């Protein structure tokens, strides 16, 4: 993963800035239980692993077993990317989505207790709040590949590219 170029923000801030885009991304993640998380190993090389993403209490949560490699990676370097499960076929009618950002480990006992009450996770577990620095949805519209990108402090952008040598178009 490249060094972070923008300041992370909360999922709620993203939802406030781009409610339709945020709902589309959340619904895409909620289609399947398991997704793919990318973290950084101590030597800087990528690690990918399965993970369940949980949207509740105005945030995106990443839960994992204590001392799992992904948890140790995030404690050392909080940068991550999570890619929504693409599903069982090549159609991906609802697009391909991913979120990059920083994971913040939750140690507040009241917040952990609230999460346990609402989500009933297997215990013991570690909980990280995923603060996005980039949200991307890629889809097909006719002959165009359409990429919608959001970063904190900026409006979302929509880029269109045909399957020829024509330049990328905005909008």
Give structural notes.
This protein has 171 residues and is an alpha+beta fold. Helices cover 22% and strands 40% of the residues. It contains 4 helices and 9 strands; from the N terminus they run H-H-E-E-E-H-E-E-H-E-E-E-E. It has helices spanning 11-17, 19-30, 69-76, 109-119; strands at 34-40, 46-56, 59-64, 79-83, 96-105, 126-141, 144-150, 157-161, 169-170. The chain has a 6-stranded antiparallel β-barrel. Helix 1 (11-17) packs across helix 2 (19-30). The protein is globular and about 50 Å long.
Topology summary:
Layout: H1 11-17, H2 19-30, E1 34-40, E2 46-56, E3 59-64, H3 69-76, E4 79-83, E5 96-105, H4 109-119, E6 126-141, E7 144-150, E8 157-161, E9 169-170
Helix pairs in contact: 1-2
Key words describing this protein structure:
171 residues, 22% helix, six-stranded antiparallel beta barrel, alpha+beta
User: How far is the N terminus from the C terminus?
Assistant: 27 Å
**Numbering strands along the chain, what is their spatial order in the largest sheet?**
1-2-3-6-5-4
What is the H-and-E element order?
HHEEEHEEHEEEE
- Residue share in helix: 10-25%
Strand content: 35-45%
The helix count comes to 4
Q: In this structure, how is the largest beta sheet organized? A: 6 strands, antiparallel, barrel
Rg computed from alpha carbons, rounded to a whole number of angstroms: 17 Å
| Beta strand count | 9
Question: Which parts are unreliable, with pLDDT below 50 for 5 consecutive residues or more?
Answer: none
Overall geometry? globular
Instruction: Return the average pLDDT rounded to an integer.
Output: 92
Structural class: alpha+beta
């Amino acid at each position: 993963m490249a060094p972070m170029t923008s300041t992370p923000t909360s999922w709620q801030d993203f939802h406030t800035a781009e409610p339709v885009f945020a709902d589309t991304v959340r619904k895409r993640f909620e289609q399947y239980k398991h997704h793919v998380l990318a973290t950084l190993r101590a030597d800087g090389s990528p690690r990918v692993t399965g993970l369940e993403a949980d949207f509740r209490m105005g945030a995106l949560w990443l839960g994992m077993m204590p001392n799992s490699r992904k948890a140790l990676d995030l404690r050392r370097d909080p940068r991550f990317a999570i890619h929504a499960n693409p599903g069982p076929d090549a159609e991906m009618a609802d697009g391909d989505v991913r979120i990059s950002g920083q994971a913040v480990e939750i140690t507040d006992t009241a917040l952990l207790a609230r999460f346990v009450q609402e989500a009933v996770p297997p215990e013991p577990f570690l909980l990280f709040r995923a603060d996005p620095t980039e949200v991307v949805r890629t889809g097909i519209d006719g002959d165009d590949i359409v990429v919608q990108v959001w970063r904190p402090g900026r409006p979302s952008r929509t880029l269109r590219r045909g399957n020829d040598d024509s330049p990328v178009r905005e909008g």
